[in-house]
């Protein structure tokens, strides 16, 4: 075999090898897997770093809230008595609880550095008074709001807690600013610890980098393993793949155009058949899912429209009437609520009011509310309260389901007679605040819920509420006393009466309403609202 012939044949063999399906598949899969693993690893690492950075901030803030009062208490307990050893032991136990805190300082609101863990390692500082030279840090300490200084941009962000318990990002003047980005690192965090001192926590990201490096190493190993498996599979299963793949590709194009009834036929007996079956199953599921999505969007739009209509049924403004200051509000638990209230001027001197609560909440309750509103509006001014409620009860009993009923309390205020009357149909007892002595009492209970029985005449009774100047009457749905803070703790009547006693000396019914609702929301925190909350406040002026 001559050298010239060998030189000619080698390139031909190489070209043939490179043009083979097996080689192309191996190269293509290898490059594809490498690129996919590379991109996925990069995105994953970036996301992981953002997640860890965010975790360090969240954990640091929680850690600061928990430990700052303890650190200040230990400082006041030990350092004034020169008991540095005991104080240092407590500080070390604090560091052991968080690997993200590199150092901490205790600073008074006057700017005096009372303790610095970086310099006071073995003994207590005994030199002249140390004052903060960093004016921005001094402003953070004096703010009394928790705050952070970012590491890269050096901006200062204050963390203000809202009435609902959420955190609002503000500046030194408590004006809203851009929140911290997920990947924005912080240099330190300032947490008020007492009325005299704040604690500055220096944050370390050494542990974050270590975890990122470990994740990167695992990604590289996984990528190498994936490429090897891909080459192995491509080498042994190259033959007979192209035609089924063409069928799958063509089927994907047809389905992408919206023909979800198209099915791909594959006659092989290996994993490609499983893939084809899965592909066909996917097409079927896509058809079902698309129909379900369209239905869900339609229902959501209808619920949105229903909620808007129901909101329009609420009074847009409360009528003004001599002798009584009135405010009301409703917080639904879902898009459609089961509570209602309204005000109807039967004549210039008389105002009819009511507050009702249908069993449950959602669409069924909302429909009953709409029926009840229409009935009351129709009968208002034509009969007295007792007859009005009897007529509403009769129609609700005939036209609604047997398991749907509505508790309701109706009131009338006569500006001429200065007289407040009410009639209860199984509703919650109203809370009466007596301005003269500050006492809080409950009005008598009575009546049966509307829609339960064909007739409720004998259970209804019109009663008088003696309202002196400054007195307040709180009408509410059971969503207030039955607001939950946890699975075991409920707001209850005791807290409601306490809140009424505390806030009903406010100057207006609007202020009282807002204070009572804020008290309930502060108690519930982030616990899910389980029932509609409705309140009506009447203040005698």
- Alpha-beta content class: alpha+beta
Unreliable runs: none
Order of helices and strands: HHHEEHEEEEEHHHEEEHHEEEEEEHHE
**Mean pLDDT metric:** 86
Strand content: 15-25%
Q: Count all strands and give the number.
A: 17
Tally of alpha and pi helices: 11
Helix content estimate: 40-55%
Rg over CA atoms, rounded to whole Å, is 36 Å
Distance between the termini: 119 Å
Output the strand order for the largest sheet: 2-1-7-6-3-4-5
How would you characterize the largest beta sheet?
A: 7 strands, antiparallel
Summary, kept brief:
This protein is α+β, with helices and mostly antiparallel strands and 541 residues long. It contains 11 helices and 17 strands. Strand 9 (339-347) and strand 10 form a beta hairpin.
Provide an overview of this structure:
With 541 residues, the protein is of the alpha+beta class. 46% of the residues lie in helices and 19% in strands. The protein is built from eleven helices and 17 strands. The protein has helices at residues 3-19, 21-78, 84-97, 135-143, 206-236, 242-256, 271-313, 363-379, 385-399, 492-503, 509-524; strands spanning 101-108, 113-116, 147-150, 156-161, 167-170, 186-192, 197-203, 324-331, 339-347, 350-358, 406-414, 419-425, 431-433, 440-442, 462-465, 472-476, 533-540. It has a seven-stranded antiparallel β-sheet. Strand 9 and strand 10 form a beta hairpin. The chain is flat, with a radius of gyration of 36 Å. It starts with a helix and ends with a strand. The model has no long low-confidence stretch (mean pLDDT 86).
